[in-house]
Amino acid sequence: MLIGIDDTDSPAGMCTTYLGAVFAGKLREEGYSVDSMTLARLNPNARYKTRGNAAVCIETNAGEKGFDLACSLVDELADLSCERTNPGVAMAESPLPSWFYTKAVTDFLTIEEAAEFLDENGAVYKGWKNGRGLIGAAAALSASFDDSTYELLAYRHHEEKGERIVDRGSIFLAEEKTYPHTWDSVDFGNNVVVCVPHTPDPVLYGIRGESPEWVKKAVSYIKSEEPFITALYRTNQGTDAHLLDARIADIKEDRSYRIRGNVSSSPSTGEGGHVSFLLSDEPGISVRCMAYEPTKEFRDVVRKLIPGDEVTVCGSFKGGSINLEKIEVISLAEKTFAKPPVCSCGKRMTSAGTGKGYKCRRCGEKSGEAEIVHIERELPLGWYEVPPVARRHLSKPLVRSRAKN
Ligand code: ATP
Questions:
Q1: Nearest C-alpha to atom 26 of ligand 1 is from which residue?
Q2: What is the pLDDT of residues 166-195, one digit of tens each?
Q3: Where does the record place the TiaS C-terminal zinc ribbon domain (predicted)?
Q4: Terminus of the chain with fewer CB atoms < 10 Å: N or C?
C-alpha cells in the first residue's frame, strides 16, 4: 500500500516530512514494514505552499491500519488551527498514473481534479477542512521520478522552537568529506551553512546526496543535539523536474522553464542589486530575466552578458520575468568599440562632428572609417548556477551533471 500525505504544516511549525518520519516510526513499532519513503517537491510557485511544497508517500504493508494511523497523526500533529493548513491523506494499492504528479510539479491542479483522480483510480482518501492537501497526497501517490536523489533528515521534537544545536564546523567537514556525492550542506563561497533551517519547524538538518550511503556518510561527521527522529527519503530534489522546455511566446506565469534564446538588452543593475536583461527567441518577442540579489556572485556572470550572446536560461516565470536558477552560455557575440582611425601622418584623428567622420588635427586629412577594436570576452562558455544559499529544492546542481560525465 502507498499512503500519500500533504499540507500538515503552517508558518508557525510542523512539516509534512516530519509527520512522514513519525508515521514510519509508528508503523515499524507496530510491526509493519516501511518499504519506501518518497518526498515529492511540487510546483515551487504553488500559491498555498507554506515553505518548500513537499508531499510524502510511504509504502507499507499496514493496509487500512496504516491509513487510520496516518489520519490519527494528522489529527494529532497538523496545525489545523491555521487557515492555510488543509491536510489530505490518500491510499492506493499501487502507484497511480504519473501524469498527475507531472502536472503537480510543473503546473496547477484543483482540489476537485485531485478528488476525481483519486476516485477514478480507486484510492481511499480523507481531506481535512477544504482538503487542498489531497492535491499533494494524490501527487505523492502518482510520483514517478526519471531521476532522483536522497535526503537524510534529522528532526527535533515538533514542540521545540529554540535555537538548533548543530556544530557548524562538523557540517563543513561533512561536506568536505562527501562532496560532490552530497551537496548544498554548506555554501563555501558565502561561508554559510545551508542545511540547517531558521524556520520554526522540526527540521534539525537535512543532507542531500546521490545515494543513501553518501548521505549517511555525511551525517556520520555531524555533531548536533540528539535528533528526536530521522528519515531517509528518496526525492525529486535536485533533478530539475519542474522545468519545461518552451518558447517565450508560450510561457505562463508560475510555471518554470528552460528557454534558449539571445540576449537582447545589456544587463542592468536595479534597485536592491537585482540584475536583469531581456532574452529573445524570435523577432519582437522577449522576456525579462532576473538574477536577484540573494543569488550573490551569480549576478557577476549575468553582468558579463552582452546583446547577441546565445544562452539557455532556467527558472520560474513569476511576476513577468524569469527568475534565473542557472544559465548556459552557448556562444558569445563579438564585443567591439569604434575609435577614430590613425592618420597616415601617424597621429590619431578626432571626430569631425556628428555624422561627419574623422579629421586629422595635424595634417587635415579626413576619413569616414572608424577603427574597430575587438574586446576580449571574459566569459567562458558553459553553465553557471546560483550558489547553494539561493538554490531551490528542485534545481539540479551542476555538480550532479558533471559527476555523471
Ligand atoms: P508541508 O511541509 O506541509 O508539505 P509545504 O511548504 O510543502 O508544507 P503545504 O502546506 O503542503 O506546503 O501547502 C501546499 C499546498 O498546495 C498543499 O495543499 C498542496 O496540496 C497544494 N499544491 C501542491 N502543488 C500544487 C499544484 N501544482 N497545484 C495546486 N495545488 C498544489
A1: 108
A2: 999 999 999 999 999 999 999 999 999 999
A3: 340-379
A4: C
Q: Is the CB of 140 under 6 A from ligand 1?
A: no
Phi, psi (deg, nearest 5) at residue 72: -70, -30
Structural domains of the chain in order of their starting residue, each with its CATH number: 2-141 (3.30.70.2200), 149-235 (3.90.600.20), 243-332+378-403 (2.40.50.1010), 335-375 (no CATH)
| Beta carbon of 19 within 6 Å of any ligand 1 atom | no
Q: Judge contact between 72 and 87, C-beta under 8 A.
A: no
Mean pLDDT of 332-339: 94
The residue to mutate among 23, 42, 242, having the most atoms of ligand 1 within 8 angstroms of its beta carbon, is 42
The predicted pLDDT at position 403 comes to 61
Q: What is the mean pLDDT of residues 321-345?
A: 96
Q: Residue 297, Cβ neighbours under 10 Å: how many?
A: 12
For residue 48, what pLDDT band results from cuts at 50, 70 and 90? confident
Tell whether ligand 1 has an atom less than 6 A from the beta carbon of residue 50: yes
- Residue 21 parent element (H or E): helix 16-29
Looking from the CA of residue 134, the nearest atom of ligand 1 is 20
Looking at this protein, which amino acid is placed at residue 30? E
Tell the residue number behind the cell numbers 546521490, with chain if given: 210
CB atoms within 10 A of CB 137: 31
Q: Supply the Cα-derived Rg of the chain in whole angstroms.
A: 27
Residue 231 to residue 21: CA distance in whole angstroms = 5
> Cα(403)–Cα(212) distance, rounded to whole angstroms?
17
Cβ atoms of residues 241 and 104 within 8 Å: no
For the packed helices 133-141 and 99-106, what is the interaxial angle rounded to 10 degrees?
Answer: 130
Summarize pLDDT for 217-269 with one digit per residue, the tens.
Answer: 999 999 999 999 999 999 999 999 999 999 999 999 999 999 999 999 999 99
Query: 151 CA distance to ligand 1 centroid (A)?
Result: 19
Q: Where are the alpha helices (DSSP H) in 209-307?
A: 212-220, 298-303
Expressed in angstroms and rounded, the spacing between residue 72 Cα and the centre of ligand 1 is 20
40 lines ligand 1 (CB under 6 A): no
Summarize pLDDT for 136-148 with one digit per residue, the tens: 999 999 999 999 9
pTM: 0.94
The three grid cell numbers given for residue 381, joined into one nine-digit string: 562558455
